[in-house]
Structure formats: C-alpha cells, structure tokens
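Q: Hi! Curious about what Inter-alpha-trypsin inhibitor heavy chain H3 looks like structurally. Here's the sequence.
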Amino acid sequence: TVITSSALNKAKSSQEVFFEVDLPKTAFITNFSMSIEGQTYTGEVKEKEKAKKQYQKAVSTGQTAGLVKASGRKMEKFTVSVNIAANSNVTFILTHEELLQRKLGQYEIMTRVKPKQLVQHFEIVADIYEPQGIAFLEAYGTFISNELLPLVEKTVTDKKAHISFCPTLDQQRKCPGCDGTLIDGDFFIKYDVNRAEIIGDIQIVNGYFVHFFAPPDLPRVPKNVVFVIDRSGSMSGIKLEQTKQAMLTILNDLAEDDYFGIVLFDSSISTWKESLTKATKENVSEAQKFIQRIIDYGTTNINDAVMKAVDMIMKGKRDKNVPERSVSMVILMTDGMPNSGESSVPQIQENVLLAMGGNMTLFCLGFGDDVDYSFLDVMSRQNKGLARRIYEGSDATVQLQGFYEEVASPLLSEVDLRYPDNLVNSLTTSHYKQLFNGSEIVVAGRLTDYSLDNFLVEVFAQGVRNRQVTKDSSLTVTLRDSVRFVVILHKVWKQHPYHQDYLGFYTLDSHLLSPSVHGLLGQFYHGVQFEVRDMRPGEVPEKPDATMLVKGQELTVTRGWQRDFRWDVKNGENIPCWFIHSNGNGLIDGNHTDYIMSGLFMTV
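A: Let's find out. The predicted structure is below.
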C-alpha cells in the first residue's frame, strides 16, 4: 500500500505541515520519504523500540522524525511534521506491507481515510492480481452515501481486479459551498480466490516460495467445546449482559453433532450439567435459559474454572460419549486477573498446560482495559490457541460472536506441512493445531536452489496424508490406519485437442476390504471374469481393437498403455491394459452417472 499526500503552503510565512496516517497493526512500514521543492529525503525505518528512543532524541534536537503509535483496536497511527517555507510544497510518500489473513472465507483490505479537509485531488486506486483467479470481490466505504456509491468503480476479470474511488472537490463536500468533508471513515475491499487444488497454491519467486493451504469442500469436524464464563462482581452490568446476549446466539450456531458444556465461575465453580451434552435443539434451548439466569457475584477463580472444563472434556473422551473424530476446545471469557488467593500466574499457566496435555485448544477472550491480557495471551498460545481483547462498547456482543465464528468450524486438526530438508530452509511455522473453515494456513520458505520450479510437499492432518508435486498433485487417504488410496490430479498438456485434467484413483490395499465392498472401484476389487477375442486393427496401428465378453455383454475394447502410480507417485509404472469405451457401459454396474458426486469429499 502506497499512501501519497501533497501539500502547498500558501501563506506568506513558513508553517508546520503534518502527515498523519492510520495503518493496520499487522502491517509494517517499508519506506517513507519526503520531497520538498524537488529535494527528496528518504527516512530510515527502525524497529519500534529503537525508533522510539531515536525519535525522542531527534525531536529534542529539532530534527524531523515520525513515530508509530497505537490507534484504536486494529490500527496504528504514523505521524510526522515538517516546517515548510512560504509558497513551498511537500510530498509525503509512505509504503507499508501486510500479509492478508483469510477470515470467514475472504481477504480484507482496509484503508482508513481521514483527510480532515477537502482535497483537491483525492483518489483510492487498488490493483489485485491472483494467479488462482478471483472468486468474488466487493468494495465499499463506511462513509460512502448513495450519492457517492456510483463513484466506486470495479473492473474484475479472471485473475485481475481494478478498483477506484475518485470524488471531485464538490462531491467531497458535506453540503454545497461548505468546507466540511464526507470523506471520513474506512474503505474496504473484500475478496476470495478460486480454490481448485486440494493441496493449496504454491508460488515460487526469486528463490523463495509461499504455500497457501485452504483446501475446498472439506467436511467440518464435530467439536467438543466448554464455555467458561466469568460471573464475578467486576462483570456486573453491561459486560455480563453483552456476554449473555452473545452466548444466546453462539449456542444457536452449534451443530447437532457438537457436544458442549458451560462452566460459571466467581470465587466458586458451577456448571450447567456435569458432563458434555449433545447440541440438540432441546439441549440448546435449556442451556439458553440457564445463561439468561446468570447473575454476578464474588471474585474470580480462573484456575479451578479452566481445570473443571478440561475435566469435562477428558471424561467425555474416556467414556466415549463424544465422537472419536472430533476436536476439543475451551473458550474462556473473563474481564479480570487471577486473585491474590489463587496460585501465581506462572503456576496457573503450568497447571492448564499439564492438564490439557496437547489434547485440546484454549481460546481466551479478555474484556476491557483492566484484564491481564498478557496472562491470557501466553496461556492461550501455550495451548495452541489465541487470545482476543474484547473492547468495551456497544458492539462487544458482535465482537464475541465474530470471534466465535472464526473458530466455530474446525476442518482439520494437527496440520503438519512438510517440505524437503535438502531443498528448503528458513521455514516459517509449518505445524498448526487446527484449520478452521474460512481461514488459511500460509507457510513461506527459502529454496536452496534458486532455479527450482517444483518440489514435493506433504501435508499430514488428522490421519489424512496429502502429497503434492507441482506438476501432478496426489493425495494419499488412509482409512482407520489400514486401507490406503492414492488420488492423483493428472494435468494434461493444455493444448491437447480433447483430453482434460483428470483424477486418477489408485488402491493400495484392496485385499483388506470386505467382500461386500462396492462402488465405482469397489466392484472390481475381487476380480472380474472376462474373455478377449477377435483382435483386429484399430484406428491407431499400435492400438488394436478387440471384443471383450464380460457380464453377459460383448464390448468393443482398445489395447493401450497406462501408468500405475501406486508405488511410484512421481514417475509411475507403464502397464498394458484394455480401454473400455462409452464410459464403461456394460462393464460397470448401472450407469456412470450413478457414481458422480458434487465434490470429492461428499457422501451419499
């Protein structure tokens, strides 16, 4: 993002000119420069703590310096000022970069615009290029009225998008002839990309790679969740009411195959039910009535409350009352800190870490400015989760619901992305406890060979193993640590007159399946009786035709060769075979349309 601001001092004496910009907290400044009367001055970007010390020293000696400070929930403010001579101009240019994080199925680019005055030439221009293709895109501003809406122009093609917003001086005015500006708020661009590859998208540039992993069409995994709610005296009033309102909505969003529990705490602990309960409509309704009856009382006992939640989940697993293939999480909501009567902060963190033992995730929501946020943040990270500060305000309920939506639908657990040790180094985090619906895992690394344009990637997640080579992608699926299948995406030469990319299914352990197995492949696992006769020349000399007698049918078949990738995923083994025409009609049971599904991971 490049932000450019030009100003002219029309006064007869020198004046101080301020440049003030809000940028996302997740962004980092890569360049800042000022041009005064044709002379360019390039700033030196420093890490924040070093910059703060140098800023104070520079200001005390009269030098020009800028500093980034926190500004609200998601933004930081960069401010710099410079003295400009009469009738002189200055141009500020700030460049910042940011890794867009995919949340709830979309990327979001937010630009805060607060010029505080009419601007002679105002424009927002964005150009987006996505190699996978753009699935959808929307652009809007919190300050854009119906009159300004037509000025938001969008041009979207397959892989590119161009967005612009360029109001004239008069269109910026709050009213005809007045100096007040309508431009005051946030401009949003939200979009997502097409996701055809199960393994994700890998981009290689100048010896570095980035792997974007967000596989489409994965079924959600049932979850076991315990909500741990602070009802101590400090939560009284609006905070507790907003928590209760959010919980009513959150409980409604539970799926019927989820299991949940509720723990309330002040200086004592109480539960809705002693064990995890299936999220049926009746149980959810009963839990909502329980939530509405919560009243504030006493001080806090975070340690015992979280330990109670852990016990409920572990008991559900031991007694096999929850689905075997499920993920477990604890969501703690509090506005306080451990009381002096409790164990020390490090002791509580150690207790929780030992109790959870890597078997579940902890998410912490801290209300207001008085919460010991660092305590919650460390404890969450130790248990593969994250903490979020809930700001006091009228939208606290929405903040709570928004956070829950992000983590409500786990798709994979224990996601481990592996890359060849001899080809890749300087790797970012490549193991994640969970992948949630609508999110994305991003791994970056440096290649040892700058000329490399493809390499092997393996993804392991909850007993499912994926493997990719950039030309042909493969997925090895293991059922209950027994039967294995290899699914390979074969990419055909793009200029081939009729062949298209296709999926090849290869079975490694058909002997382990039961005699009653069926399906497009299953019907052949135990052998098929057939006879081939009347071999004759085909359309291609090296591929003769013949007649196959099978299942009481006479079928015309063609001799050919096909690669078997069961044991050599990269090269395959060339084997002779007979090709059946007409989508296998006469060979397969029923018609080929009987076996078509809307997605690879769909079930009947």
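A: A fun detail: Residues 469-509 form one domain.
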